[in-house]
Amino acid sequence: MSPSARVRLLVIAVLAAVEAPLVFTAAVKAGDLFSLCKRNDPQLNECVKDSITALRATFKKGIPELRVPSLDPMVVPQISLNQGNGPVSITSSFKDLHIQGFSDVQINSVKVDLPNYRIDVDCHLPWFYTWGDYDIKGQILVLPISGNGPSWSNYTDVRGRAAITGRELVKKNKTYFGMEDMKFDVDVGHATIHMDNLFNGNKVLGDTMNQFMSDNWRAVYSELKPVINEAVSTLLRDVAKKIFDKFPLEELFPK
Ligand SMILES: *[C@@H]1O[C@H](CO)[C@@H](O)[C@H](O)[C@H]1NC(C)=O
Ligand SMILES: *[C@@H]1O[C@H](CO)[C@@H](O)[C@H](O)[C@H]1NC(C)=O
Questions:
Q1: Which ligand 2 atom is nearest residue 173's CA?
Q2: Model's pTM, two decimal places?
Q3: How far apart are CA 241 and CA 236, in angstroms?
Q4: Which of 8, 38, 131, 198 has its CA 20 to 30 A from that of 27?
């Protein structure tokens, strides 16, 4: 069975709680917020890559005009993961999961296919750091694990791949990128994962488990990866949707 088939993932992203205050938006133009690219530009991919790269400075403060919250740190209010009853069975949840480091993103490549409503972005991050309260119960490899409390992780040499798909959407005679999905897949070169207060605060067992997770970070990360992917996808999907819902394609990608 594929990992995704045995993973049941639930994200409750109460994004309203972390949204930036609304600034009066009626007249905001796409060109005020982004450097725009002409749709027939033979270098369209390069142009969009530069445009996203230039946006990194706004990741920390968000885009209040579009109610886009800060992306650095990003905050996922609640996320939980239930993996089936096989040899690996784990139930975990995180509250107020903060993800820091996204504003150092390097965009490697962008592929814009407007006729087919598809955009692919390949990027690299030197590191991202997460913290939040965890609750976990189950088994990692051969060891039982249980506990709840604060946790942090640092992931280095991170590669992210985003795929945005959509379809034509016409509103008031204007064509929009009707976003259907955005998937974000995160691979890491190394992960350091730490959980405080494992096993009801039993220090010996907790230290042993944290050491075990450091020594076996690849296996641990593969268990947590669906949480990270879904957390980041949920937030970036929301940002992309706010942009595509607000501005028609003729404004985002002028002729
Ligand atoms: C994460 O690890 C990288 C590489 O070791 C380091 O440069 C960075 O400062 C760490 N981040 C945090 C928040 O500790
Ligand atoms: C849409 O375009 C058609 C034909 O150009 C026009 O007759 C109609 O009034 C337009 N509708 C709106 C809502 O602008």
A1: 1
A2: 0.83
A3: 8
A4: 38
